[in-house]
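Technical annex, item 7. During the second reporting period the consortium partners agreed on a shared format for inverse folding records so that results from different sites could be compared directly. Each record opens with the tokenized structure and is followed by the designed sequence. A conforming record, contributed by the partner at site C, is shown below for reference.
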């Protein structure tokens, strides 16, 4: 599958390959976030059409701020500087037949309006061939909630952790913690039943050894609470605010990855945030497992450790190598839009190419350090 973007921000006309596990990487400010924002804008339109009994699209407006934590400002600010007209186009395309699975055409009116007007759209409701069109959609923003004493209970039309992980406690405690997950997502060699809470703790211990959590909910106060413990807590669970940020940041990823329905899409920004390098590698392995289980996972990352984890997952046969695509975004001088190098993995987990600037900073630093020491 490919995603086509025209006239949106830094993209004039480009197609970005997508796979069961799609990794977006590259230096800051080269289009990775714009790619994710375009998917989120498309998803807003899907939400509207799904809730509208007539499936009416023309004349509908797509907000640029608020939903899915988007903060794009006004319509004139998101039109590509090199656009030949003021039409913005998004489409999911079958990469084998080049057939458009679904699309949306919108218009920016160069005014301070905080929405885009929809001109036309197609195949955005219950399109089983395109994961963005299904009811369930999972997204975790880079700026997730840190530790909280409590999280409010809320209604959701399908179980999810919220865009910032604000419903993580409620999600973990789904069916009083007995929510059953698929066998394919069970922690390897775990002796525990396929219960969400137990399996989260197995995976959490894998990422951060010795760590476990428990969740309680109170219907009277409409709140849930996460407590955690490790080797140092001496079997006295402590409030989330007395645990590290890494645990709060990774829990919504674990919970979502274990419950997300096969065939749906899961976007997660910076899964490595606040994690030790060893945990960054292992969260890469976890997300590879989720993709192998049938979820379309999209990761935006700046961590070579996450990439290493995915490579390890391929070698360990946690995921088939042909299901992984790495898209390396870079800015080329005098280029009108980002250049995207698509990197596949071999069955041995080897990257088929290694473009300049792709996680080579360690080598540059070591060379500079070596030369600096020689001059002392």
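Designed sequence (site C submission):
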């Amino acid at each position: 599958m490919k995603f086509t973007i025209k006239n949106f921000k830094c993209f004039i006309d480009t197609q970005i390959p997508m796979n069961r596990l799609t990794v977006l990487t590259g230096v800051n400010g080269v289009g990775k976030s714009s790619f994710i924002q375009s998917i989120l804008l498309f998803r807003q339109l899907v939400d509207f059409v799904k809730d509208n009994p007539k499936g009416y699209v023309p004349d509908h407006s797509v907000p640029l701020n608020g939903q899915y934590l988007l903060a794009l400002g006004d319509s004139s600010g998101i039109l590509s500087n090199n656009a030949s007209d003021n039409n913005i186009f998004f489409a999911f395309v079958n990469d084998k037949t080049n057939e458009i699975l679904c699309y949306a055409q919108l218009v920016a009116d160069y005014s301070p309006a905080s929405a885009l007007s929809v001109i036309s759209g197609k195949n955005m409701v219950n399109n089983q061939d395109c994961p963005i069109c299904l009811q369930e959609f999972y997204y975790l923003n880079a700026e997730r909630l840190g530790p909280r004493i409590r999280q409010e209970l809320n209604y959701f039309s399908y179980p999810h952790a919220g865009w910032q992980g604000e419903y993580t406690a409620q999600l973990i405690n789904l069916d009083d913690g007995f929510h059953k997950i698929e066998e394919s997502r069970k922690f390897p060699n775990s002796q525990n039943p396929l219960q969400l809470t137990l399996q989260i703790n197995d995976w959490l211990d894998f990422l951060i050894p010795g760590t476990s959590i428990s969740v309680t909910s109170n219907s009277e106060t409409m709140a849930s609470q996460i407590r955690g413990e490790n080797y140092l807590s001496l079997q006295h669970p402590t409030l989330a605010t007395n645990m590290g940020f890494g645990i709060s940041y990774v829990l919504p990823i674990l919970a979502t990855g274990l419950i997300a329905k096969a065939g749906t899409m899961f976007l997660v920004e910076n899964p490595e945030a606040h994690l030790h390098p060893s945990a960054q590698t292992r969260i890469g392995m976890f997300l590879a497992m989720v993709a192998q289980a049938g979820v379309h996972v999209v990761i935006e990352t700046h961590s070579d450790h996450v990439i290493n984890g995915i490579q390890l997952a391929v070698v360990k046969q946690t995921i088939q190598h042909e299901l992984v695509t790495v898209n390396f975004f870079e800015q080329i001088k005098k280029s009108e839009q980002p250049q995207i190098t698509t990197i596949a993995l071999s069955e041995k987990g080897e990257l088929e190419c290694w473009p300049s600037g792709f996680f080579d900073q360690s080598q540059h630093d070591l060379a500079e350090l070596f030369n600096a020491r020689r001059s002392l």
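The helical segments are 32-51, 168-172, 196-207, 245-259, 277-292, 304-315, 361-374. The chain has two domains: 1-136+260-351, 145-253. All partners now use this format for quarterly exchanges.
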